[in-house]
C-alpha cells in the first residue's frame, strides 16, 4: 500500500505519464544519435522537436493527440509562410516589424479563444519569428535551408508523438467516451435511488452526502462528454457506433440529467423547508401500497442501465482527463463555505457537502460511492429471486422480468412475491421488454400519485374558497402598519423574500461581515443540497414554510409532487428511449462492428442551418409587431468595427502585439542586434507569449509558474550538464543526459496529464531543460556545428535567466501599467452580461407564452402558426446553449480573481460563486418552463380553468421579473448597491398558489374535473407554474449576495462622497 503522502495514480494516469516521458526521451535519443543529426543541415534547429513532443500531448487518447497535433501542425504551417515573408524582408527591418506585429495580433486573438488553440498560436509565432532571427544571422538574407531544417525538425517531433501515441498502449477517445458514458449512467442510477429514498423519507445522512455531491457531479459529467466527443470525431475506429449514434445517446443522457436535476430541486425544497409535505407523500405511498411499485421501478431503472452499460462494453473511469487549462461546473463548488453547526441529528446545519472533499474525483469519495451504489442496488434486489451480483450482468442472464400494474406481486424476474428462489417460475422475457416494463411501472406509480393529489385537492383543507385575484388589496395604511420590526430589519439586510425567526442572532458572520439571510442561503442550498444553519420559518418558493397551515402544506405537496413527477417522467422517458436505441432485440439485430470514419460522420452531423421560418418573421407572427431587418449604414458598420477593436479580446491581442514587438526591436534595431544574438534572447519570446494573459489575475498566475517552470528546467539542465561533463569519450555524455532527462520528465508529465491548470509551467520546465542540453551538445559534441569558444553551461544559464528577466519585465509592464484588465472587473461585467442575457431570454419566452396562452384573450383569437413557435423555440434553445457556455467560462475568471492583489478589499469568491449558481438555477428553471409549455401550449381545458382566471398574476410576474433582471444586471455592471425596497413576488406567489388550489379543488369534486386533474396537461401546467415562480424568487435571492459585495445604499460611496467635478480646482 502506498504511503498517504503519495498521490494515488490510476492506470490511465500512469499510461499517460509513461507515454509522455517516452516521447520526450525519444527526442534526445534521436538528437544525440550521429546518423540522425547528420540528416539536418543545421542541427541546432533540432531543439524545436522538444516543444512539439510536449505540446502535442502524446500521452492523451488518440483523438486528443490528433486534435492537439493537427492544430500544432497548422500553427507550424502558418509560421512557415510567415518565415518566408519575413525572411525576404530581411533588408527592411521596419517592414519586418510591421508585418510581424499584424501577424502576432491575429495569433493572439486565436489564442484568446480557448486553451485548445494554445499550441497553434505559440508555434505559429515562434516559427514566424525564426524568419526574422535567421535573416539577422545571415545579414538580412533569406535562407531556404534554414526553413527546411526547421520544418524537418518539427516533422520529426510530430512523427515521434504520433508513433508513441498510436503504437504504445494506444487509447481510443471513442473508448474513453464510452467509459465516461458509463460513469454518467452509474451516477444517474445511484442518484435515482437516492432521490427515491428522499421521496419516501428513508434516506440516511451518508446517503444524503452522496446525493448532494452527485447533483453537482452529473453537471460535470456532461461537460466531460462534450469535450471527449469532439476528440472522437478525429478518429477512425472499428466499432459498432457511429457519430450519429453517439450524438443521440448524449442527447438522451443530457435530457435524463436535466430531468433528475428538476426532481432533485423540488425534493430539496420539501426536505429542507417543507418536511410535512414529504410526510404526506410517505403516508400516501403507504396507504395505497405504492411503495412496492416504487421499489420495482427502481429495480427496473437499475437493470435497464445495466443493460446499456453492458452494451457499451467498458467499465467506468476513476479519472476524467481534462484538456490543459479547461474547467468544469464542479470546480465552482470549491467556494462553498463550510458550516460550523454540527447538529446533524435534527437535520439542521449539515455540513455543506459539495466541497472538493466530496467530489467524485476524490479517491476517498470514489470508494464510498461504489459501496453505496452496490448497497442501493441490493436493496431493490430483494424483490428479485435471482439477485444480480454485478452492476453489469451477463447479457444472457435471465433477470429481465416485466412489471405489470395488473399483477403487482410480479417481480422483475417473473417470480411472485410469495415464491422462493428454488420454486421460482422464470418467464422468458426479451431484454427489449425492460423499457416497456419501466413504462408500465411508471404509469402505475404516476396514477397512484395523481390519485393522491386529487384526494388532497378534494380534502377541503382550504381556509376559504375565494379567489384572491378577485379581491381588493389592502389600503396603503394597512400595508404600512403590517410591517413588523423584524421584517424591516430583514429588508435592511437586502433580503426581500425571507424573514428569520431570530434576526439578531443570525445576522452576523464570524468574520464580522453581514451574514447572508435565509433567502440567500436557500438560493444557494435548494439546488446544491445543503441546509441552513438556523431553523428557517421563511416562505419557500411556493410561499409556504414548515410551520404553515394545512392549506399551505397541501398546496406545497401538490406543487412538488407534480413537479417531481414531471422531472422524473422526463428522465425515465429518455432512459427507455436510450435503452431501445442501445440494447438490441436479439443477437441478430445487434449492429456489427465496422470501420467508422468519424470525421466524415461528424461533417454530416454538423449543426445544420435552421431551415424553418426566420426568427424575426416568426416573432412578428407571434406578437403582431414588425421586426423587419433594419438596413445598416456605412457609419453604423464603422461603429460596429470600432466596438470590435475595443473589445477585451482585441485589447488583449493589442497588448500582446506591443509586448512581442518591443521584444523584437532588440533584434531589429542594428545597435541591439549583436546583444540579442550573443545572449540568445530568442528564448524569451515563448516567455512573453505565455505570460501575456487576457486578465490580470491570469497574468500573475502565469508569471509565477513561468518563473518556477523555466527556472527549474534551466537549473536542472545546468545540473545534469555539470554531472556528465567529460564523462566517457564525449564532452557531455549523451547516455547520462538522456537518462536524467527521462527522470525529470516523470513528475512534470504527471502534472501535465493530471493537473491541467499547471500545463504551461511543466511545458516550460521540460522545454528549458531540453533546450539547454541540446544547445550545449550541438555546439560542443557535433563536429559539423562545434564552436570551441562557446559559452560554458553556467554562463549559458545566466544568459537564459537574463532573457527570462527581460521578457517578464516587458510582459509585466504591458500587463500591469497599460490598459490593465482586472479579472474581478471582467468577472463582474461578464456576470452582468449573463444577467441581461437571461432577462432577454425570459422576455422572449414570455412573448412566446403569451402567443400560446394570451393574458387577455379576445374574440377571434387565432393560435400562432406552429412554424413560428418552432422557430422561436429553436432560438431559445440556441440562447440556452450560449448562456450555459458563458456560465462555465466564468470558472477561470473566478480562480484568477482570487489571485489578484486585494488592496484592502478581499475578493469574496464564495459570494460570487453563489450568484453564479443562482444564475445557473434560473437558466434551469427557464429551460424547464420552456419544456413544459412545448410548442402547442396548454389545451382548452387548462386555459379555461387556470390560465385565464390567473392571468393577472402572470402579468404581474412578467413585470416584476423584467424589473429584477434589469436591477440585478445594472447593479453588477455599475457596482452600485441595490435599493432596499425592490419589487417582490413573495405575496403574489403565495396568492397564486392559493388560487390555483381553489381552482383545482373546484375541479376535483366533479368526475369530469378529476379527469383533468389526472391528465398529463394538468401536470405540465403545475410544473410550468412552479418553474416560473422560482425564477422571480431566485432573482430576489440575489439581493443579499449583492449587499455583501456592494454594501447598502446608505453606505455607498456614491451617496457619502461628493460627486467630483471635472477639470482642475
UniProtKB/TrEMBL annotation:
<feature type="transmembrane region" description="Helical">
    <location>
        <begin position="153"/>
        <end position="171"/>
    </location>
</feature>
<feature type="transmembrane region" description="Helical">
    <location>
        <begin position="799"/>
        <end position="819"/>
    </location>
</feature>
<feature type="region of interest" description="Disordered">
    <location>
        <begin position="503"/>
        <end position="548"/>
    </location>
</feature>
<feature type="transmembrane region" description="Helical">
    <location>
        <begin position="758"/>
        <end position="779"/>
    </location>
</feature>
<feature type="transmembrane region" description="Helical">
    <location>
        <begin position="651"/>
        <end position="669"/>
    </location>
</feature>
<feature type="transmembrane region" description="Helical">
    <location>
        <begin position="675"/>
        <end position="696"/>
    </location>
</feature>
<protein>
    <recommendedName>
        <fullName>Putative ER transporter 6TM N-terminal domain-containing protein</fullName>
    </recommendedName>
</protein>
<feature type="transmembrane region" description="Helical">
    <location>
        <begin position="12"/>
        <end position="33"/>
    </location>
</feature>
<feature type="region of interest" description="Disordered">
    <location>
        <begin position="385"/>
        <end position="413"/>
    </location>
</feature>
<feature type="transmembrane region" description="Helical">
    <location>
        <begin position="117"/>
        <end position="133"/>
    </location>
</feature>
<feature type="compositionally biased region" description="Basic and acidic residues">
    <location>
        <begin position="507"/>
        <end position="525"/>
    </location>
</feature>
<feature type="transmembrane region" description="Helical">
    <location>
        <begin position="831"/>
        <end position="848"/>
    </location>
</feature>
<dbReference type="Pfam" id="PF10337">
    <property type="entry name" value="ArAE_2_N"/>
</dbReference>
<dbReference type="InterPro" id="IPR052430">
    <property type="entry name" value="IVT-Associated"/>
</dbReference>
<feature type="transmembrane region" description="Helical">
    <location>
        <begin position="703"/>
        <end position="725"/>
    </location>
</feature>
<keyword id="KW-0472">Membrane</keyword>
<feature type="domain" description="Putative ER transporter 6TM N-terminal">
    <location>
        <begin position="148"/>
        <end position="257"/>
    </location>
</feature>
<keyword id="KW-0812">Transmembrane</keyword>
<dbReference type="InterPro" id="IPR018823">
    <property type="entry name" value="ArAE_2_N"/>
</dbReference>
<dbReference type="GO" id="GO:0016020">
    <property type="term" value="C:membrane"/>
</dbReference>
<feature type="compositionally biased region" description="Basic and acidic residues">
    <location>
        <begin position="394"/>
        <end position="405"/>
    </location>
</feature>
<feature type="transmembrane region" description="Helical">
    <location>
        <begin position="731"/>
        <end position="753"/>
    </location>
</feature>
<feature type="transmembrane region" description="Helical">
    <location>
        <begin position="68"/>
        <end position="86"/>
    </location>
</feature>
<keyword id="KW-1133">Transmembrane helix</keyword>
<feature type="transmembrane region" description="Helical">
    <location>
        <begin position="92"/>
        <end position="110"/>
    </location>
</feature>
Amino acid at each position: 500500500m502506498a504511503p498517504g503522502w503519495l498521490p494515488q495514480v490510476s492506470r490511465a494516469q500512469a499510461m499517460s505519464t509513461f507515454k509522455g516521458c517516452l516521447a520526450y526521451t525519444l527526442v534526445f535519443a534521436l538528437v544525440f544519435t550521429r546518423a540522425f543529426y547528420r540528416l539536418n543541415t543545421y542541427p541546432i534547429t533540432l531543439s524545436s522537436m522538444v516543444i512539439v513532443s510536449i505540446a502535442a500531448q502524446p500521452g492523451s487518447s488518440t483523438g486528443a493527440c490528433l486534435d492537439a497535433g493537427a492544430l500544432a501542425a497548422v500553427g507550424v504551417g502558418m509560421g512557415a509562410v510567415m518565415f518566408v515573408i519575413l525572411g525576404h524582408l530581411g533588408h527592411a527591418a521596419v517592414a519586418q516589424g510591421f508585418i510581424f506585429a499584424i501577424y502576432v495580433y491575429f495569433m493572439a486573438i486565436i489564442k484568446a479563444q480557448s486553451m485548445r488553440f494554445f499550441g497553434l498560436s505559440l508555434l505559429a509565432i515562434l516559427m514566424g519569428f525564426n524568419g526574422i532571427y535567421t535573416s539577422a544571422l545571415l545579414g538580412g538574407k533569406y535562407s531556404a535551408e534554414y526553413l527546411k531544417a526547421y520544418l524537418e525538425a518539427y516533422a520529426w517531433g510530430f512523427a515521434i508523438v504520433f508513433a508513441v501515441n498510436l503504437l504504445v498502449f494506444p487509447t481510443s477517445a471513442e473508448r474513453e467516451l464510452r467509459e465516461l458514458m458509463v460513469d454518467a449512467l452509474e451516477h444517474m442510477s445511484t442518484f435515482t435511488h437516492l432521490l427515491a429514498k428522499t421521496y419516501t423519507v428513508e434516506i440516511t445522512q451518508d446517503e444524503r452526502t452522496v446525493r448532494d455531491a452527485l447533483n453537482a457531479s452529473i453537471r460535470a459529467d456532461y461537460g466531460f462528454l462534450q469535450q471527449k466527443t469532439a476528440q472522437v470525431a478525429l478518429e477512425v475506429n472499428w466499432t459498432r457506433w457511429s457519430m450519429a449514434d453517439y450524438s443521440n445517446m448524449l442527447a438522451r443522457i443530457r435530457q435524463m440529467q436535466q430531468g433528475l436535476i428538476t426532481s432533485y430541486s423540488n425534493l430539496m425544497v420539501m426536505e429542507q423547508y417543507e418536511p410535512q409535505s414529504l410526510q404526506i407523500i410517505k403516508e400516501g405511498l403507504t396507504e395505497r401500497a405504492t411503495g412496492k411499485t416504487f421499489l420495482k421501478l427502481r429495480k427496473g431503472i437499475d437493470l435497464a442501465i445495466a443493460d446499456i452499460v453492458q452494451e457499451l462494453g467498458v467499465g467506468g473511469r476513476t479519472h476524467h482527463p481534462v484538456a490543459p487549462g479547461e474547467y468544469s461546473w464542479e470546480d465552482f463548488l470549491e467556494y462553498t463555505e463550510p458550516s460550523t453547526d454540527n447538529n446533524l441529528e435534527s437535520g439542521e446545519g449539515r455540513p455543506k457537502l459539495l466541497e472538493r472533499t466530496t467530489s467524485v474525483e476524490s479517491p476517498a469519495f470514489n470508494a464510498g460511492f461504489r459501496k453505496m451504489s452496490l448497497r442501493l442496488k441490493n436493496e431493490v434486489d430483494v424483490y428479485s429471486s435471482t439477485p444480480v451480483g454485478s452492476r453489469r450482468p451477463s447479457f444472457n442472464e435471465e433477470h429481465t422480468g416485466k412489471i405489470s400494474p395488473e399483477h403487482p406481486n410480479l417481480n422483475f424476474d417473473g417470480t411472485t412475491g410469495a415464491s422462493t428462489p428454488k420454486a421460482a417460475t422464470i418467464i422468458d422475457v426479451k431484454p427489449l421488454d425492460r423499457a416497456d416494463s419501466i413504462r408500465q411501472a411508471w404509469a402505475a406509480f404516476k396514477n397512484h400519485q395523481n390519485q393522491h393529489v386529487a384526494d388532497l385537492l378534494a380534502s377541503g383543507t382550504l381556509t376559504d374558497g375565494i379567489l384572491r385575484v378577485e379581491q381588493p388589496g389592502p389600503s396603503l395604511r394597512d400595508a404600512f402598519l403590517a410591517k413588523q420590526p423584524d421584517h424591516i430589519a430583514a429588508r435592511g439586510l437586502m433580503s426581500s423574500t425571507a424573514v428569520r425567526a431570530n434576526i439578531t442572532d443570525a445576522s452576523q458572520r464570524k468574520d464580522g461581515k453581514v451574514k447572508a439571510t435565509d433567502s440567500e442561503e436557500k438560493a444557494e442550498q435548494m439546488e446544491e443540497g445543503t441546509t441552513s444553519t438556523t431553523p428557517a420559518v421563511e416562505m419557500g418558493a411556493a410561499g409556504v414554510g414548515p410551520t404553515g397551515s394545512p392549506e399551505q402544506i397541501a398546496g406545497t405537496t401538490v406543487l412538488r409532487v407534480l413537479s417531481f413527477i414531471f422531472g422524473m417522467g422526463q428522465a425515465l422517458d429518455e432512459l427507455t428511449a436510450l435503452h431501445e436505441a442501445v440494447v438490441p432485440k436479439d443477437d441478430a439485430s445487434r449492429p456489427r462492428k465496422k470501420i467508422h470514419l468519424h470525421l466524415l460522420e461528424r461533417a454530416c452531423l454538423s449543426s445544420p442551418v435552421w431551415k424553418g421560418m426566420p426568427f424575426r418573421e416568426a416573432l412578428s407572427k407571434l406578437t403582431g409587431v414588425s421586426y423587419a431587418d433594419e438596413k445598416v449604414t456605412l457609419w453604423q458598420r464603422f461603429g460596429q468595427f470600432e466596438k470590435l477593436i475595443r473589445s477585451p479580446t482585441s485589447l488583449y491581442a493589442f497588448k500582446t502585439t506591443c509586448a512581442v514587438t518591443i521584444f523584437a526591436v532588440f533584434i531589429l534595431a542594428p545597435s541591439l542586434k549583436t546583444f540579442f544574438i550573443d545572449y540568445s534572447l530568442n528564448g524569451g519570446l515563448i516567455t512573453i507569449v505565455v505570460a501575456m494573459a487576457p486578465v490580470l489575475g491570469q497574468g500573475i498566475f502565469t508569471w509565477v509558474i513561468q518563473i518556477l517552470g523555466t527556472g527549474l528546467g534551466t537549473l536542472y539542465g545546468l545540473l545534469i550538464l555539470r554531472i556528465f561533463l567529460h564523462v566517457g569519450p564525449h564532452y557531455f555524455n549523451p547516455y547520462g543526459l538522456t537518462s536524467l532527462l527521462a527522470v525529470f520528465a516523470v513528475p512534470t508529465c504527471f502534472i501535465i496529464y493530471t493537473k491541467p491548470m499547471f500545463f504551461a509551467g511543466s511545458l516550460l520546465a521540460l522545454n528549458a531543460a531540453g533546450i539547454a542540453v541540446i544547445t550545449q551538445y550541438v555546439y560542443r559534441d557535433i563536429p559539423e556545428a562545434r564552436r570551441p569558444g562557446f559559452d560554458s553551461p553556467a554562463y549559458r544559464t545566466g544568459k537564459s535567466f537574463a532573457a527570462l528577466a527581460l521578457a517578464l519585465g516587458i510582459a509585466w509592464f504591458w500587463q500591469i501599467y497599460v490598459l490593465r484588465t482586472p479579472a474581478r472587473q471582467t468577472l463582474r461585467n461578464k456576470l452582468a452580461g449573463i444577467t441581461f442575457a437571461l432577462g432577454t431570454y425570459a422576455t422572449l419566452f414570455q412573448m412566446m407564452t403569451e402567443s400560446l396562452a394570451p393574458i387577455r384573450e379576445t374574440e377571434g383569437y387565432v393560435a400562432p402558426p406552429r412554424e413560428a413557435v418552432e422557430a422561436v423555440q429553436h432560438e431559445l434553445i440556441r440562447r440556452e446553449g450560449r448562456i450555459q457556455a458563458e456560465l462555465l467560462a466564468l470558472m477561470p475568471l473566478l480562480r484568477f480573481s482570487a489571485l489578484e492583489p486585494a488592496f484592502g478589499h478581499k475578493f469574496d469568491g464564495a459570494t460570487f460563486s453563489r450568484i453564479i449558481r443562482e444564475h445557473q438555477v434560473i437558466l434551469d428553471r427557464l429551460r424547464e418552463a420552456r419544456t413544459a409549455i412545448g410548442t402547442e401550449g396548454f389545451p382548452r381545458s387548462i386555459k379555461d380553468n387556470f390560465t385565464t382566471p390567473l392571468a393577472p398574476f402572470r402579468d404581474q410576474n412578467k413585470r416584476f421579473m423584467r424589473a429584477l433582471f434589469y436591477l440585478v444586471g445594472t447593479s453588477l455592471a455599475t457596482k452600485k448597491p441595490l435599493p432596499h425596497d425592490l419589487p417582490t413576488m413573495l405575496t403574489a406567489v403565495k396568492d397564486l398558489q392559493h388560487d390555483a388550489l381553489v381552482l383545482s379543488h373546484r375541479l376535483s369534486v366533479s368526475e369530469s374535473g378529476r379527469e383533468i386533474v389526472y391528465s398529463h396537461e394538468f401536470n405540465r401546467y403545475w410544473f410550468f407554474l412552479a418553474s416560473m415562480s422560482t425564477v422571480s424568487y431566485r432573482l430576489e435571492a440575489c439581493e443579499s449576495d449583492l449587499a455583501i459585495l456592494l454594501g447598502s445604499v446608505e453606505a455607498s460611496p456614491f451617496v457619502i462622497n461628493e460627486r467630483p467635478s471635472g477639470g482642475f480646482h
